[in-house]
Amino acid sequence: MLDKSYLVPWGKRGSLSTDTEAAVLAELVHEGTPLPAGVRRERFERSFAASVGSWHAISVNSGAVALQMAIRMLDLAPGDEVIATPQTHRATLQPLLDYDVRVRFCDIDPTTLNLDPAALEALITPRTRALLLVHYGGCPAEMDTVMALARRHGFLVLEDCVHALGARYRGRSPGSLADLATFSLRNAKSGTALGEGGLITCDRDDWAERLHRLRAPDRDTRTAHLQPEPAGLPGASYALPLQRGCVRRPGSDATMPEGVAALGQAQLAGVETAVARRRALAGRLDEVLARYPFLTPQSAPAHSLHAYHLYTCLADHQELRDRLVLALDRRGVEIQLRYFPQHLLPQWRHRGHLRGECPVAERSWFEQHLNLPCHPMLTPHQQDYLIEALDGALAELNGGAPAPAGAPATACGPR
């Protein structure tokens, strides 16, 4: 349920509730098929892979687990280096703390807020094994340049598509643009199947087979059969088989529940509708910002289609940003700031990262950026109120006078 303390609340879920979803869950509860059977899970995986244009989709029980397993596929060794974006949630990079690797943070592009390809090449060394990037807010990263560098220097690319369901890059879907990718179905995402769930997509058959083993409840063991053990129980007429095993991995049981898979399958058809609603509201917000050149929306290149999981804009300076946040809060519009630069979190500072390492990302967080509500659960009345509140707050910061309608956007890039 939406938070009633704000007239325009932040989105607590990003998909649309429909009668179809309720019917799917009712059918699941009343039928006799065992829930762990996996029929719906396999159907959902096939549909999801087809929707993003990938050969394989392996479902798991959360987006965090998807990231952990995908990073396992990178086969990182002590001394390897991984390049990563600082503009993301901590979950993207958290699994790297389990590895004895050096993480090199790449600064972001000031317009797209994605990893900046122009800053990337200087960070590549002979020890670079992988690159972790995010399509921030649903704005696709510049993948052609990134993948060309990866192929030239021989490292793997993992795209975190947590924001990017429904986005397009040169006509292709995130999730099929790199070596492997991860998705989350948690609360505010465009697919929110019962609050948790994740997927990994890739085109490699060997990775898909490894991922299936990795998520299974059974241990992954290489076993050698020896001579039968003599019967040791009184009256026993059998001998116990003697085996010697090498356990490569204990069972994880990270399987996606059938209910989550069934709901995910039902929601796939509605993703484009939900994203279309986000884009329509983003277009209205763009029109307001175009009249106030001191506030610039995040911009996607002309060859990309933004999914608007987040609607992010950048103020000219910190005082302006902070005053706007307070002005919108007074008007009942819930504002969030996402995300704190990862290299400045305690766990990464402990590994030697310092302020000044990614100046663009740092300036964006500390001085410029804010996220406006932009999700499909907002009613038409709430959307209208958001537009009026934003225009009023910006007019207040503009000296009390609203900007003339149709004024040119002096600081906006192509959408």
Walk across the major sheet and give the strand order: 1-8-7-5-4-2-3
How far is the first residue's CA from the last residue's CA?
32 Å
Number of domains: 2
List the helices and strands in order: HHEHEHEHEHEEEEHEEHHEEEHHHEH
Discrete helix count = 13
**What is the CATH first-level class name of the largest domain?**
Alpha Beta
Helix content: 25-40%
Structure summary, number of beta strands? 14
How much of the polypeptide forms β-strand, as a percent range?
A: 15-25%
Mean pLDDT figure: 88
CATH topology of the largest domain: Aspartate Aminotransferase, domain 2
Q: What global shape is seen?
A: globular
Largest sheet: 7 strands, mixed
Q: Which spans of ≥5 residues are poorly predicted at pLDDT below 50?
A: 407-415
CATH-level-4 superfamily name of the largest domain: Type I PLP-dependent aspartate aminotransferase-like (Major domain)
